[in-house]
What does this fold into?
Amino acid sequence: MTKRRILKISGADAREFLQGLVTNDINRLDEGLVYAALLTPQGKYIADFFLLPAPDGILLDVADSLGDMLVQRLGMYKLRADVTIEAVALFLHRGLDTVPEDGFADPRHPALGWRAYRETPQTDDTTDWTALRVAHLIPESGIELTADTFILEVGFERLSGADFRKGCYAGQEVTARMKHKTELRKGLAQVQISGEADTGTDILANGKVAGTLLSRTQNQGIAYLRYDRAKGEMSAGDAVVTRVDA
It folds into this structure.
């Protein structure tokens, strides 16, 4: 499981501050866990994270590798707002059984179970989270989600990570235009894999690059594809690759 960092956003302006920056509606915190992202003004991915209400602020759960950068970026936007951003000594716990009293259902997909934030590390987690996210086409920070990512190409609307009625946020104009005025020509897709192919390998169709294999577990994978080329049997390394939903 990806190591996580838990931050706390507090202060009188915390909600308003986040509402003007992230892809989802902060008012959904009243209902539970919120999945969202911070984008560049050009609509490209900076970081994805979970937000949840806390008694004295809002907790933010982000991949540890993105933590320092995200704190710095949020600090740039803070200006004179009454907002404090700090790391807290909490640890992510996850499970697939009944949601505990201190837990929150993962908003991206019911199959991903629950998330809870506790004062001691989790030591009993044996779930193959990679297999679960590959099976349900869930992108991961640093793998499917990179600095070149447009969030609609990786299914953020399907993952309940974007709200198109909340108003302005960083990158909103580009994201809204992609939704309403263009047809996506590239994006994530599930693939079946027969044979040896490492992640990061180009996927070829009729001798042309049709995409890249990004995640794999046994004979299933997540690929970033050019939809116009990703047809029929394709190849990646020594493997035969077929788009599942084609």
Observations:
- The chain has two domains: 4-136, 186-243.
- DSSP finds four helices and 14 strands in the chain.
- The CA atoms of residues 185 and 227 lie 6 Å apart.
